[in-house]
Design brief:
The structure is a homodimer. Chain A is of the alpha/beta class. In chain A, the strands form 2 sheets. Chain A has a 7-stranded mixed β-sheet with strand order 3-4-9-8-5-6-7, sandwiched between helices. Chain A has a two-stranded antiparallel sheet with strand order 1-2. In chain A, helix 13 runs antiparallel to helix 17. The longest helix of chain A is centred in the C-terminal third of the chain and has 26 residues. At the A-B interface, helix 8, helix 9 and helix 10 of A face helix 8, helix 9 and helix 10 of B.
Chain lengths: 371, 371
């Protein structure tokens, strides 16, 4: 890993150089040509792709070649519960939902309700409860109940473990040690865990008794699981999954990744409107130190977390986004107003999201797979 | 581990000093007093106990104290399939069946159909098939279908994995590395496996939502799994299991442990009568090099694998066993006759065993637990 930053599923540190990250691990950048190819086949465009938030990939051209030959893919993504979901968590799920809708394909969503309990000081029972909340937050994004299968690892281990051991046989401790930053004092559940995460990348091939291409939208810290498992999957006779990689939603305080464990840096889906307002008003902007200076010199939208929240999540319209960025650059948009606007947008989003959530509560069972 | 021998579940080497093994790992020897206490409570005596083949224990007095207070225990044992079962494999299962019958208690039998596929060059599908044969060989020993639950790990992972991760969280790689002889090149499935083997030692407590004492009859190489897991179980709020430890059935060629991977040293339950005869006739005895010398000087039953087979498995009557040993010692029993007798005994046992096996084939499902 590059010396100035560190990205593993269990630790993100320093200022992330996304291009260098991709280069180091043999991940390709999504270029204009691939972007247009995806949009053409999808019959539409998504801001997360246009704005290079999903910025890199593995084997996407192969996946689309197969798709054009009539060999349809399925989608796989997931989240490890550890607390209330944050806005940042929604990014891969929003994009996955869009891909499902546009390509009309199935989605497998793994909720590993053992992972964080193994890694952190949180109980298995607590994580298992959180898993249901996460599932509700996910389906509220508009997933098709007929084409979406959600499973919690401890409830679906009867299916997953049988396959996980086949992957695990081909992964050594040496391989996971460096990749995940483990030591000899790491517990053996954490060491094994990556093989459980690998399973849904070929589970449909097991079920259908023929190879089915798989596309995994994920945040870059999760790529390592499939780096470690890719060779094992090939040896087992399956396709390597294609992957599209998202950048992290920055923290309100300027961290490169919104941290779920720092409440001030992060907006949780469970935050009250007041809490959202308070947090956004404490956010770091790219503006000058006073309103006078800002009006005179203007600010830098790239350094402004408020602008970045619009870019990542809250302004799908590129023209309107450019106007916000321009206001920041030219100094016509002042911090207070800027933050008020974003608070309102976030609170409106959360209000609608929570309504959808509650409406779907009774439908959740339709999505959940159990052994 | 002592320098002259090595005992792990994956490697047994050198001449085993059973007393030293027990001492080194804090295992107690079963003394006359405990032997008599077990016999009194069981209302009977078993040659495997009388002859110190089950020779050591952990916490047996505690288990029997609880039993006398009305806190009944359950039994847990198992076998990892890797090929046809051998005579040696039967020893813990025979003793466990006897304990079930005498104490009227339940038995959990784990058949880890992933373990050997993880450790050795054998496929998961192959091992899974062998697991059914092993289960049949086990129930042919007379287990009570109402009180015996057999489960294959990959079919029962929905129940086991949920508990295994709780154990795994409290076991580090350092702990298993030395205990099992692992290295950084060991695969992560093998590293995790011990936590699956720990689960049945407290599964009944999970099911009954109260602590139930557990007694595990096992061969000494398996003690390590519970050494590694004992502290984790206590931290999870369960009793540590009590254990009784068996010595290994020696190999026909004089090895301290009949090796399932050396066909000439080992009698498989699937061997033909001719194969048994041939193997027994090649066995090492404690006799002199010629019949003349043997008649004159006599032999040593302790060094005679034929005598040992009678002692371990084929002569339950102590007086008749002593007569065989005396014949060997005094030189009145010659090698040919001695081996002919044993071959006949083994073949008679296998013939009856195989008949019981086939009679029970249609009943197997009654014993098997699946998720």
């Amino acid at each position: 890993m590059a010396e100035n930053f560190k990205v593993t599923p269990y630790e993100v540190e320093g200022k992330i150089d996304y291009d260098r990250f991709a280069k180091e691990f043999g991940i390709s950048i999504i270029d204009k040509k691939l972007e247009e190819r995806i949009e053409k086949l999808a019959g539409g465009s998504h801001w997360l792709l246009r704005r290079h938030i999903f910025y890199a990939h593995r084997d996407m051209n192969w996946l689309l070649d197969e798709y054009e030959k009539g060999n349809r893919f399925y989608l796989y993504t997931g989240i490890a519960p550890s607390g209330s979901m944050t806005l940042g968590h929604l990014i891969p799920f929003m994009f996955t939902q869009w891909l499902q809708e546009k390509f009309g394909v199935e989605v497998y969503i793994q909720i590993p309700d053992e992972e964080k309990a193994l890694i952190r000081n949180v109980s298995f029972d607590e994580v298992h409860k959180l898993a249901y909340d996460d599932a509700l937050n996910i389906i509220a994004l508009g997933y098709d109940p007929k084409k979406t299968k959600i499973f919690f690892n401890t409830d679906y281990a009867g299916t997953l473990y049988r396959q996980a051991v086949r992957v695990a046989k081909r992964i050594t401790f040496s391989m996971v040690k460096d990749a995940f930053g483990f030591t000899n004092e790491t517990n053996i559940g954490s060491i094994f865990y990556t093989s459980m995460q690998a399973v849904p990348a070929f589970l449909k091939s097991v079920e259908e008794k023929k190879n089915v291409p798989c596309l995994i939208p994920l945040a870059i810290d999760q790529d390592v699981h499939f780096r470690v498992a890719r060779d094992a999957l090939v040896k087992l006779g399956y396709y390597k999954p294609a992957i599209v990689h998202a950048k992290f939603l920055p923290g309100l305080g300027g961290r490169p990744k919104m941290s779920a464990s720092d409440p001030n840096d992060t907006i949780y889906l469970s935050d009250t409107p007041e809490a959202v307002e308070k947090k956004v008003h404490r956010a770091i902007t790219g503006q000058q130190s006073t309103a006078e200076l800002q009006k005179k010199l203007g600010g830098d939208p790239e350094k402004c977390s408020v602008c970045q929240y619009y870019r990542y999540l809250f302004e799908p319209d590129d023209k309107k986004l450019e106007k916000i960025f321009e206001g920041e650059r030219k100094g016509t948009l002042l911090a207070g107003e800027h933050k008020d606007d974003l608070s309102k947008r976030i609170n409106k989003f959360l209000e609608e999201h929570n309504k959808k959530r509650e409406r779907l509560r009774s439908k959740l069972d339709e999505f959940i797979l159990k052994d």
